[in-house]
Structures are given as structure tokens and as C-alpha cells.
């Protein structure tokens, strides 16, 4: 918004307190609807591998798929005696079917930045490392500084940088 872009957001809650999905969709630009159509996402961001897989209906061959490799095992799996898929199999399948797949050790990078709570900034840094992302790293850091208490600036800058560097290495 500080860069002059229109921003529209939607959030869909699927009984999240009982293990359901929470999906947030963000559009930057001149759009009328907040919902991203199937196969139209430019970037798919997942806080864990299966979450990224659940969002694949929004992806196409050119979608940048960025996700934290550390799984968050839903309680529903233990209740149904199902196993969480192997991370290596998820990554291999995604790379076989999509052109731009960026698995990121988000939890490790967040801890390196100073707190696991900075995982969202690691993933944001990973997303902006995409050359087609409409916001620059400088603009994102400026916005973060304008919206967070100064006590958290250094940690979040490091988290953004960690995520950015993790994707730029590919």
C-alpha cells in the first residue's frame, strides 16, 4: 500500500480449532475479487509442507511455491492412524510437477533470527526473493518497521534476510 498498490485480502477459516484449514489469499494490484482463481496464483506460501500441497489448486506451472519444510502434524492424523508424508517425497513430487519450488528450513532460519515467532517474516523474505514479486525487500522492511515495535526490528530484518537468502541460493 505504501508503494501505491491496491491490496485485497481474504481469509477462509475451516474449523481451524478442530484441525481444519485456514487459508489467506492476498492480491496486490487492481482486482475486484479477493479470491484467487484456480491455477492463477503467482506465489503459493505454506507454513508447512502439507499446507502448501493443500493450496496447489491455486498453482500453475509458473507459480513460485515457497514453504517451510518443518511439518506441523495435524491432530486428525493421529486420530485416524494415518502417517504424515515424507518431506523428501513431497519436495520430489512438487519439483516433478512445478517449475519453481523453494523448500525453506523456515524454523531453523527463524530461530537463527532470534525467535521461532519470526517464521512469518522468514517466509515473507522467501516470497519477496521472487523476481516478479511486486514489492522490494526494502519496501517490505520499511513497512515492517512502520508496523512493529522497534524492539523487534533487528530480529525481523534478520528473519526477512534469512528467508530471502534461502530462496536466492536456488
Task: Kindly describe this structure.
With 170 residues, the protein is α/β, with parallel strands linked by helices. The protein has one domain (38-168): Pyruvate-ferredoxin Oxidoreductase, domain 3, CATH 3.40.920.10. 39% of the residues lie in helices and 16% in strands. β1 (7-13) and β2 (22-28) form a beta hairpin. The radius of gyration is 16 Å and the shape is globular. It starts with 6 loop residues before the first strand and ends with a helix.
The N- to C-terminal Cα distance equals: 29 Å
Low-confidence stretches: none
* Shape-level CATH architecture: 3-Layer(aba) Sandwich
How large is the radius of gyration? Answer: 16 Å
Question: Please, how many helices?
Answer: 7
By CATH's scheme, which homologous superfamily applies? Pyruvate-ferredoxin oxidoreductase, PFOR, domain III
How many independent structural domains? 1
Strand order of the largest sheet: 3-4-5
Topology pattern, helix = H, strand = E: EEEHEHHEHHHH
Structural class: alpha/beta
In CATH, what is the class?
A: Alpha Beta
CATH topology: Pyruvate-ferredoxin Oxidoreductase, domain 3
Give the biggest sheet: 3 strands, parallel
Shape descriptor reads globular
Rounded mean pLDDT score:
90
Residue share in helices?
25-40%
Beta-strand proportion:
15-25%
Q: Tell how many strands the DSSP assignment holds.
A: 5
Amino acid at each position: 500500500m505504501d508503494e501505491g498498490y491496491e491490496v485485497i485480502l481474504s481469509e477462509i477459516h475451516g474449523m481451524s480449532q478442530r484441525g481444519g484449514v485456514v487459508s489467506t489469499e492476498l492480491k496486490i494490484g487492481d482486482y475486484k475479487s479477493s479470491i484467487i482463481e484456480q491455477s492463477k496464483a503467482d506465489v503459493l506460501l505454506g507454513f508447512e509442507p502439507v499446507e502448501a500441497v493443500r493450496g496447489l489448486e491455486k498453482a500453475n506451472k509458473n507459480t513460485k511455491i515457497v514453504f517451510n519444510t518443518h511439518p506441523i502434524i495435524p491432530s486428525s492424523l493421529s486420530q485416524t492412524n494415518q502417517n504424515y508424508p515424507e518431506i523428501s517425497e513431497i519436495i520430489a513430487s512438487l519439483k516433478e510437477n512445478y517449475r519453481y519450488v523453494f523448500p525453506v528450513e523456515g524454523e531453523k532460519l527463524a530461530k537463527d533470527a532470534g525467535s521461532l515467532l519470526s517464521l512469518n517474516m522468514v517466509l515473507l523474505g522467501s516470497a519477496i526473493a521472487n523476481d516478479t514479486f511486486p514489492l522490494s525487500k526494502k519496501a517490505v522492511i520499511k513497512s515492517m518497521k512502520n508496523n512493529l515495535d522497534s524492539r523487534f526490528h533487528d530480529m525481523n530484518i534478520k528473519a526477512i534476510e534469512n528467508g530471502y537468502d534461502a530462496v536466492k541460493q536456488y
